[in-house]
Amino acid sequence: MLGHVKHSRQTFPKPRCCFVGFLFLLGVCLLYLPDPLTLEPLVSEENSGATLLIWTHPFGRYRKLPDCFALYQIGGCTLTDDGRAYPQADAVIIHHREVASGTADLPQEPRPRAQKWIWMNYESPAHTPRLWRFEDVFNLTMTYRTDSDIFLPYGYLRPREHRTNGLQNRFAHPLRAPSRLHLLRPRLLAWVISNWSESHARVALYYQLRRYIQVDVFGRAGRPLPEDSGGSVVRLVGRYQFYLALENSQHTDYITEKLWNAVRAGAIPVVLGPSRQNYERFLPPEAFIHVDDFPTVRGLARYLLMLRRNPARLRQHLDWRGSYSVHQPTFWAEHYCTACRAVRRNRGRTDVVEDLTRWFHS
Ligand SMILES: *[C@@H]1O[C@H](CO)[C@@H](O)[C@H](O)[C@H]1NC(C)=O
Ligand SMILES: *[C@@H]1O[C@H](CO)[C@@H](O)[C@H](O)[C@H]1NC(C)=O
């Protein structure tokens, strides 16, 4: 019988990813990242399966629930979106947006004993309203933050020599060391932006940057994605040497698909988001150019233009690619399956998320 451990964020801070790891090797760090596909098989006790209730489909968009075993070799998971399963569910995944906006209520209390309520959210704190309503409600957090109870980021790298199996390869995009053509991409700098807001730091940056360097803007605020890119951001960005991966707001670990699409496409990301140190938990230091690396926007523009004239220098930002694959988890299939695996592992514990607002804004 497992003891009941009540853990609070204040008294038992968890080891933070990579503070130590990066001093040695990226590979060490990545051991802290979730590894949905190469996990050691769970001891398949007959009765250790878990039923996970998906309380709402995120943003009200229905998606067929995945088969976790077929996709990720995570067994023992029953996923359901049928509220009638509530009394039997081992855990309920509750996506923030719907309960915060009132389009859905929280499940009825009292909750079945041992049932976990999982708070799932992939928006930044700036776009996560009414958090204060949910203090002492949830048992586990699931977000892009490395210190979440269930951590699954928007993307992550894996060293290529990492032992892989067929399944993992299905979801990993191997990166390539730069070829000669890669160093001579004809187009310079792209930005795809869907939510244009004059109040965003990224828009202010753009206004300054375009005084010094050509920026091709796509998305709602600029030109539509060109036909021949098939609407694919990765294909479009693959023609450019640099890509502006500018987050809508700047918060701990809030590094979204904007960065990972650029990495996949082989464009060097120019990032605006959390600090350089924070990005370095996820990527080698030379894999990106941080706007904070330069005292002025003009300095940043000059650096990009200088790199373009110096393939040898450019290469220094790209050579790391030969040893990595990038993985972009599939919303929301992989999230559900990862959560299910965590629930199976956390069985028998009592967890309470006490300082949700303070923690998420920290
Ligand atoms: C767009 O940005 C504005 C300003 O920050 C924000 O209020 C709004 O929620 C954003 N919309 C989306 C769809 O992210
Ligand atoms: C879940 O959280 C609730 C509310 O804080 C708490 O009363 C309950 O004991 C927790 N249950 C588990 C299984 O962690």
Automatic annotation (TrEMBL):
One Gene Ontology biological process: inflammatory response
Gene Ontology cellular-component annotations: endoplasmic reticulum membrane; Golgi cisterna membrane; Golgi membrane
Domain Fucosyltransferase C-terminal: 186-359
Principal location: endoplasmic reticulum
Keyword match Glycosyltransferase: yes
Highest taxon above the source species: Eukaryota
Cell compartment(s), UniProt: Endoplasmic reticulum membrane; Golgi apparatus membrane; Golgi apparatus, Golgi stack membrane
Keyword terms: Endoplasmic reticulum, Glycoprotein, Glycosyltransferase, Golgi apparatus, Inflammatory response, Membrane, Signal-anchor, Transferase, Transmembrane, Transmembrane helix
Name of a matching Pfam family: Glyco_transf_10
Residues in the signal sequence: none
Gene Ontology MF term list: 4-galactosyl-N-acetylglucosaminide 3-alpha-L-fucosyltransferase activity; peptide-O-fucosyltransferase activity
Transmembrane domains' residue ranges: 16-33
EC assignment: 2.4.1.-
Broadest EC class assigned to this enzyme: transferase
Domain Fucosyltransferase N-terminal: 50-155
Membrane topology term: Single-pass type II membrane protein
Reactions listed under catalytic activity: an alpha-Neu5Ac-(2->3)-beta-D-Gal-(1->4)-beta-D-GlcNAc-(1->3)-beta-D-Gal-(1->4)-beta-D-GlcNAc derivative + GDP-beta-L-fucose = an alpha-Neu5Ac-(2->3)-beta-D-Gal-(1->4)-beta-D-GlcNAc-(1->3)-beta-D-Gal-(1->4)-[alpha-L-Fuc-(1->3)]-beta-D-GlcNAc derivative + GDP + H(+); a beta-D-galactosyl-(1->4)-N-acetyl-beta-D-glucosaminyl derivative + GDP-beta-L-fucose = a beta-D-galactosyl-(1->4)-[alpha-L-fucosyl-(1->3)]-N-acetyl-beta-D-glucosaminyl derivative + GDP + H(+); an N-acetyl-alpha-neuraminyl-(2->3)-beta-D-galactosyl-(1->4)-N-acetyl-beta-D-glucosaminyl derivative + GDP-beta-L-fucose = an alpha-Neu5Ac-(2->3)-beta-D-Gal-(1->4)-[alpha-L-Fuc-(1->3)]-beta-D-GlcNAc derivative + GDP + H(+); L-threonyl-[protein] + GDP-beta-L-fucose = 3-O-(alpha-L-fucosyl)-L-threonyl-[protein] + GDP + H(+)
Pathway: Protein modification; protein glycosylation
Family indicated by similarity: Belongs to the glycosyltransferase 10 family.
Described function: Catalyzes alpha(1->3) linkage of fucosyl moiety transferred from GDP-beta-L-fucose to N-acetyl glucosamine (GlcNAc) within type 2 lactosamine (LacNAc, Gal-beta(1->4)GlcNAc) glycan attached to N- or O-linked glycoproteins. Robustly fucosylates nonsialylated distal LacNAc unit of the polylactosamine chain to form Lewis X antigen (CD15), a glycan determinant known to mediate important cellular functions in development and immunity.
Protein name: Fucosyltransferase
Organism of origin: Sander lucioperca (Pike-perch)
